[in-house]
Design goal:
There is one protein chain. The chain is α+β, with helices and mostly antiparallel strands and 173 residues long. The protein has a 5-stranded antiparallel sheet, with no helix packed on it. The chain has a 4-stranded antiparallel sheet with strand order 2-5-1-6, covered by helices on one side. It is extended and about 60 Å long. It is built from 4 helices and 11 strands. A hairpin with a 4-residue loop joins strand 8 and strand 9.
């Protein structure tokens, strides 16, 4: 069995929720597809609108005309998704779908895997990537849901707390 990855499907504008419902209905009718097409998403974001002097929070589509799919790419799943009413095609060169990278998925709030860590609060760690690379600090707080550690770094002569991803740090011996 192939590994499931996130793919982007282009749809007619305004058909995103209809396409999502159609794909979910197809999965419901074909149980073997449930193991291959794991999740269908229409990414939404909260936007504050000002109408007639009244502030109102509404949900808007982050990418109008696109639907995200977490699926194993094979001939069956490609055919089912590609032939769903409202779908114009996968995003990628020609007819070859290209999965999203980790960096592209991070701003969407999609976690691909949980990073296991070998440090805890009070341990000294070294930052091995990102803006704070080569910085050493003591873990003040761990946030497993966000996969981040808060460390204190010296900036302008004072200790300042900085939040760093688990993937960017390693424990010092």
């Amino acid at each position: 069995m192939a590994e499931a990855k996130w793919y982007v499907v282009h749809t007619y504008s305004g058909y995103e929720n209809k396409v999502k419902a159609n794909i979910e209905k197809t999965i419901e009718n074909n149980p073997h597809l449930a193991e291959q097409i794991l999740e269908v998403r229409v990414p939404m974001e909260d936007v504050v609108e000002l109408k007639n002097g009244v502030r109102k929070t509404v949900q808007k589509k982050m990418f109008p005309g696109y639907v995200l799919l977490n699926m194993e790419m094979n001939d069956d799943t490609w055919y089912v998704v590609r032939n769903t009413r409202g779908v114009t095609g996968f995003v990628g060169p020609g007819s070859k779908p290209v999965p999203l990278t980790e960096a592209e998925m991070k701003p969407l709030g999609i976690k691909t895997e949980n990073v296991t860590i070998d440090f805890e609060e009070g341990d000294s760690i070294a930052v091995v990537a990102g803006v704070w690379k080569d910085t050493i600090g003591v873990v003040q707080k761990l946030d497993h849901s966000k996969q981040t550690a808060t460390i204190n770094v010296e900036m302008f002569g004072r200790e300042t707390p900085v939040e760093i991803s688990f993937a960017e740090v390693r424990k010092l011996n």
